[in-house]
Each structure stands twice: as C-alpha cells, then as structure tokens.
Amino acid sequence: MGRTANPIPVPESSVGKLAACLRTGLARKGFGYRELAEQIRYHPTTLQRAASGKGVPSWPVVKDFAGGCDLDQEEVRRLWEAARREKARRVRDDPPRAVGVTQVGNYAELGVLLASVRAKKDSPPYLLIERRAEATKRQFGRLPHSTAWRIAVRQTRPSLHQMRAFLVGCNVPPQRHGPYVRAWERADTQYRRDLAREESKAAIPDDLRRKDPYLLARELGFVPREPFRGYHLPWTVACRFCHEDVRRIRLSRAVADLNRPTDVCPVCNLALHDSLADRR
C-alpha cells in the first residue's frame, strides 16, 4: 500500500470531496497508486495528484481512476463537475496580486486594486455593498449590486462616483478616498491617451465626420439605444429593422463596414446596409 497519504487540505470543499471519493475507492480495492497504475494507463504520481485534494484533475484521469476502482461513474462525474465550478469561482473571485494604490497607472491595475480592497474587507456580499453605498447615494449616486459585482470581477470600467460608492460599500469611508481618487485619475488619463492613439489609427474620413452620428448609425443599419458619446467610445445600438439585435459598436470602426460586403442582421436576416461600392 505504500506510505500513508497526506491529509486532504480542505475536506469539506468540492475538490476535497472528489479526492475523498477517489481515496475511498482505492482503499476498497486494496490498491496503492502503483497497483492502480498497473491497471490503467497513468503514472502513479498522476494518480496520487488526482486524489491529493490540491487541484482539479482532468476528467480522463478521474474517469479511469474511478473505473479502475469500480466507482459509480455518474457520482464521480457529479463530484468532478462541482470541483470544476468551485475552481472557476475561485479563479474569478480571487484577484491577481494588486499593486499599491500609488502605483496604479491604468484601469486594469485599478480593477485588481478594487477587487483586493473587497477581499481584504472579508468579501462582503454584493447586496450588502449596495446597502452600505445607499448612505452616500446623494454624493456618489446609487450603486446596484450588479454593478458592484462587475467592479469586483473586473468586468467594467467604473466611473469615479461608482468607484467611490464601491469603496463605501467595502467600509472605506469617503475621507480615505484621496489616494483612490488619484489612482482613478491616473487610470482615466491613460485610458484617454489610449483612445487618442486608437483615433489616430482609425481616423474617420472628413465627409463622414461631418454627418450627424445618428444619421450615420442609421446608414450602418442601426438605431441608437443610448446617447452618442464619441466616435471612438462604445455605443449601444440595435438593428433598425427588427430592433432585436442589440450590440455595442464604435463608429470609428463601424464605418469600415461601409466598404465591406453587406452585413446581415442575425435576427431578421435583413441587410443592415449597402456597401459603399454599391452606393457609387
């Protein structure tokens, strides 16, 4: 049987339950990892790692491990899928190492910093962050829990007020926001520099820039769903025929479609626009 296996680090976790199941099957068969390896196609070290409880092994390894130990394949698959979901949540919610607040230079670094602030404050639930932020809604506006979630998982670029409301929700009082405000300002400055570089690479012809952006959007086959904010900023629009195909476009990129073959709405299958060549 070999030496005694190390204890499972977190037996109550999904990864730990999967490891315990595999170890139980191994014990019932009276196998060690070497004996099991002789029955299936994996190295003993691979099988030992699979039952260590320190990570999620691949499904082929788990499947053959379970088969060699006569375990219920459906039950093992259920445990493995739960472990995979747990790992995905951990990767999503545990931010990379944050730089210091005075070192933040872009929105990516700011997002990691804000996620780490929440983690250091015992990861308050997003509904609790929303409730706490209500105390300063006159100053910073309302912060829905869905927005708090997007900030925490780094799926949005928060406005200054959204960031400050998020900090309040994480029990960082407004009088301590100064370094974070300066970090946001540096990140926003870098963002606008990047936009300027993008604008220089995707210049809009003068004849198109002189057009009303709402009319230009209609020529592209869209109707706006929100006010126009700039040629190089994301803009929510919908198909002008069915109004069902909603997407985000940047006019600086979308005008290139005027020179390409006709784009077709995936919902109503109507051509959104004629190519520029067809117009001439």
Summarize the structure.
With 280 residues, the protein is mostly helical. It has helices at residues 14-29, 33-39, 44-50, 59-68, 73-93, 107-120, 126-133, 137-140, 145-152, 160-169, 178-201, 206-209, 213-219, 251-254, 276-279, and strands at residues 222-224, 235-239, 246-249.
Description:
The chain has helices spanning 14-29, 33-39, 44-50, 59-68, 73-93, 107-120, 126-133, 137-140, 145-152, 160-169, 178-201, 206-209, 213-219, 251-254, 276-279, and strands at residues 222-224, 235-239, 246-249. The chain is mostly helical. It has a three-stranded antiparallel sheet with strand order 1-2-3. It starts with 13 loop residues before the first helix and ends with a helix. Residues 274-280 have low confidence and may be disordered.
Topology:
Elements: H1 14-29, H2 33-39, H3 44-50, H4 59-68, H5 73-93, H6 107-120, H7 126-133, H8 137-140, H9 145-152, H10 160-169, H11 178-201, H12 206-209, H13 213-219, E1 222-224, E2 235-239, E3 246-249, H14 251-254, H15 276-279
Antiparallel strand pairs: 1-2, 2-3
Helix pairs in contact: 1-5, 2-3, 4-5, 6-11, 7-9, 7-10
Q: Which term fits the overall shape? A: elongated
* Counted beta strands: 3
Largest sheet: 3 strands, antiparallel
Q: How large is the count of helical segments?
A: 15
If strands are numbered along the chain, what order do they take across the biggest sheet? 1-2-3
Helix proportion range: 40-55%
Q: What fraction of residues sit in β-strands?
A: under 5%
